[in-house]
Amino acid sequence: MDIKIIETSPTDHEVIPLIELLSNELEQRFGSSGKNSFIDWDSECQKSIFIKVYINNEIVGCGAFRPISNEIAELKRMYAKYPRKGIGKIVLNYLEKKAKSLDYTSIWLETRKLNHEACQFYLKNGYQKIENYGKYIGNDKAVCFWKKIINK
User: Fold this and answer.
1) Structure confidence at residue 150 as a pLDDT band (50, 70, 90)
2) What's the sign of the alpha-carbon dihedral 17, 18, 20, 24?
3) Strand order of the sheet with strand 49-55?
4) Is residue 144 part of a domain?
5) Which residue segment(s) compose the domain that 93 sits in?
6) Residue at 141 is within a domain
7) 51 closest CA partner among 93, 85, 6
8) What's the CATH code of the domain at 90?
9) Which residues fall within 8 angstroms of residue 60, CB to CB, at 6 or more apart?
């Protein structure tokens, strides 16, 4: 299996169809595409990363993080074209290592409570449930997680 990970932008012509697949799936399953949580992406920010993943020359996944603060990265737009094939783990591992290299100490994220697969995925990968943060405070449909990635 030939895996290639490239740092890019969410406006990359190869990434746009993946983001649309993710948004459509979220809209159909949970009534919200999640697009509003990603409209303010700052491509100039040195501490924001967006990646695309290829396996055997096919684009199969994407993911991103951006700063909540100098020490906290927020995970965004995680998507695997083929569920339960290890793609999400590849994306997450890369983003966690990259966040460490940029001196983040933890990663936070939000997903829908009804997205049981995502909740289980994050719990299985060492994330813990936390109180909703930022714009998710008071949102009963949201659940937030965090993971410490650097001990300081």
Assistant:
1) confident
2) positive
3) 3-8, 49-55, 58-67, 72-80, 106-112, 142-148, 128-130
4) no
5) 3-109
6) no
7) 6
8) 3.40.630.30
9) 53, 54, 80, 81, 82, 85, 87
| Closest to 64 measured CA to CA, from 120, 103, 6 | 6
Q: What tokens were used for 103?
A: 């001196």
* Residue carrying structure tokens 């965004």: 76
Q: Give the whole-angstrom CA distance, residue 152 versus residue 142.
A: 29
**133: which residues sit within 8 A by CB, 6+ positions away?**
68, 108, 110, 144
pTM of the model: 0.91
pLDDT tens sequence across 70-99? 999 999 999 999 988 999 999 999 999 999
Kindly write down the DSSP assignment for every residue of the chain, as one continuous string.
--EEEEEE-TT-TTHHHHHHHHHHHHHHHHS--SGGGTTT--TT-TT-EEEEEEETTEEEEEEEEEESSSSEEEEEEEEESSTTSSHHHHHHHHHHHHHHHTT--EEEEEEETT-HHHHHHHHHTT-EEE---GGGTT-TTEEEEEEE-S--
